[in-house]
Design a protein that fits this description.
Distance between the termini of chain B: 54 Å
Number of helices of chain B: 11
Strand content of chain A: under 5%
Oligomer: heterodimer
Number of domains of chain A: 1
Helix content of chain A: over 70%
Shape of chain B: globular
Largest interface: A-B, 24 and 26 residues
Structural class of chain B: mainly alpha
Low-confidence stretches of chain B: none
Number of strands of chain A: 0
Strand content of chain B: under 5%
Shape of chain A: globular
Helix content of chain B: 55-70%
CATH superfamily of chain A: NADH-ubiquinone/plastoquinone oxidoreductase chain 6, subunit NuoJ
CATH topology of chain A: Four Helix Bundle (Hemerythrin (Met), subunit A)
Number of strands of chain B: 2
Structural class of chain A: mainly alpha
Low-confidence stretches of chain A: none
CATH architecture of chain A: Up-down Bundle
């Protein structure tokens, strides 16, 4: 039991606990805030695995950008428990079954993990920015470029959808 | 038990460094509020605060005491925890960036080599960017927890401004990274000490970064989040007492920290121009370095104030137009030219 394992356990408790709180809390804004705590805990795990770049990008992209947009939407819609429609019984059952099967798959995968390798502090340089960049631009350059074209087309699509109303209004 | 395998001396050293850095930035931010009022007074041909203490030097303490003694009001229907979390987060994200700034080179005390940087991580600049992107949460949580439509709208106004200018800031940083080839702030300073300051290679990038820093700190001409004369006060409408003070004070800390970051990235950090630091003894060299960094930061803080009392505020659509249609294409162009030049000379 060294200090990194202790940190790992703390972070795991934090991640699982806040994920549970995210589902349990009634106000959607609180759910979003708990989800941000989960992202922070996961970034901590990345740092324990010596993947600093991944950790900080996880915070910049997910906690810093995507969750801000989530918060924007949730705050403006002013959702609360009273106005939330209650989903019918059949939908709830289907949700439980599909969620449960996913849980089984993840559990069976976790069971096979060698417990000794939970923390790899300061070992290996796979997660560092240099080896990541070399890997992306040498070994995986084609998939990388294809995914960037995909992102670009998604961005253009978003702009087109946003512009649509304006064009219709101008015609009137 | 193998819990205690870490070096206790290192932990104590870092703790002392954190306390010194945090308290120094608090004191500097405190006197920046005083300096702001004095600079405003000089620019407007007035005397400024001169009653509390000699030359009015105790004015920031008096302001702080006034804020502490004011009645504290928490709106009835708001979430109390989030209402307090808002200003606390604003303060915390303002202070967190100081962890990766190299404040000087090594000093020798009690036979130990102490590195004057809290954490020399190899992703330093990305860490800065990550903390900046978290700065929005203090404002958004505070404005939502106020349970007031106008606060919420003010919070959204502030948040969309910060998000818009983060993009151009990030792209101008990418061009800088292409020049330096490193993400560590310490290494950047070492490079600039040996060669030239980065502002020579990246003048346009520096200009974009400077404008974005003004917008991120909510300083005039981008102070729309608290445009109290033509719009309503903004995200802190419902706040009173020291919680309001935290929001306002965080702005001054942000100003100081971003001045230091600009000095580090573009103006050589703790490098004193025309002085060869390696000839001096390490402790004196470190002190000279700290003095140089502080002098550069003070120049930037003065620039912040000078602009505030000279240029009027933008309209909101002008703000968005400048951010999205001018600064981002300009930053992309800068990145393209930088890449082309680097490729040509390679």
């Amino acid at each position: 039991m060294n200090i990194t394992t202790l940190v790992f356990i703390l972070l795991s408790v934090m991640a699982v606990g806040s994920a549970a709180m995210m589902i349990a809390s009634k106000s959607p804004v609180h759910s979003v805030l708990w989800l941000i705590v989960v992202f922070f805990a996961i970034s901590g795990h990345y740092i324990l695995l010596n993947a600093q770049f991944l950790a900080i990008v996880n915070i910049i992209v997910y906690a810093g950008a995507i969750m801000v947009l989530f918060l924007f939407v949730v705050m403006l819609m002013n959702l609360n428990a009273e106005t939330e429609p209650i989903k019918n019984y059949r939908l709830q059952l289907i949700g439980i079954i599909s969620g449960g099967t996913l849980l089984l798959i993840i559990l069976s995968a976790i069971m096979k993990i060698d417990v000794e390798q939970l923390v790899e502090m300061k070992t290996g340089n796979e997660g560092l920015i240099k080896s990541l960049g070399l890997n992306l631009f040498k070994n995986y350059v084609l998939p990388f470029e294809i995914s960037s074209v995909l992102f670009l087309s998604a961005m253009i699509g978003a702009v087109v959808i946003g512009k649509k109303d304006e064009a219709v209004e101008n015609k009137k | 038990m193998m819990l205690l395998t870490i070096d206790i001396g290192l932990v104590i050293e870092k703790l002392i460094l954190i306390v010194v850095v945090i308290s120094a930035s608090l004191v500097i931010a405190m006197y920046t509020t005083f300096a702001e009022r004095k600079v405003a007074a000089i620019l407007q041909d007035r005397r400024g605060p001169n009653r509390a203490g000699p030359f009015g030097l105790l004015q920031p303490l008096a302001d702080g005491l006034k804020l502490f003694f004011k009645e504290e009001i928490i709106p009835n229907f708001s979430s109390k925890f989030l209402f307090i979390l808002g200003p606390a987060l604003a303060m915390m994200t303002a202070m967190m960036t100081s962890a990766v700034i190299p404040w000087g080179n090594k000093i020798e005390l009690f036979g130990r080599n102490i590195n004057l940087q809290i954490a020399d991580i190899n992703i330093g600049i990305l860490y800065v960017f990550g903390v900046v992107s978290l700065g929005v949460y203090g404002i958004m949580i505070g404005s939502w927890a106020s349970n007031n439509k106008f606060s919420l709208l003010g919070g959204l106004r502030a948040a969309s401004q910060i998000i818009s200018y983060e993009l151009a800031m990030g792209i101008s940083m990418i061009a800088l990274l292409m020049v330096t080839g490193t993400l560590s702030l310490k290494e950047m300073v070492v490079q600039q000490q040996a060669g030239h300051w980065n502002v020579i290679y990246q003048p346009l990038g520096f200009l974009i970064f400077l404008i974005c820093a003004f917008a991120e700190c909510n300083r005039t001409p981008f102070d729309l989040p608290e445009a109290e004369n033509e719009l309503i006060g903004g995200y802190h409408t419902e706040y009173s007492s020291m919680k309001l003070g935290f929001f306002l004070f965080a702005e001054y800390i942000n100003m100081f920290i971003s001045s230091v970051i600009m000095a580090t990235l573009f103006f050589g950090g703790y490098d004193m121009p025309f002085v060869n630091e390696s000839l001096l003894s390490p402790n004196i060299a470190a002190l000279v370095g700290i003095a140089a960094l502080m002098a550069k930061a003070i120049c930037f803080i003065f620039l912040f104030m000078w602009v505030r009392w000279t240029i009027p505020r933008f309209r909101y659509d002008q703000l968005m137009h400048l951010g999205w249609r001018i600064l981002i294409p300009l930053a992309l162009f800068n990145m393209l030219v930088t890449g082309g030049v680097i490729l040509y000379f390679k």
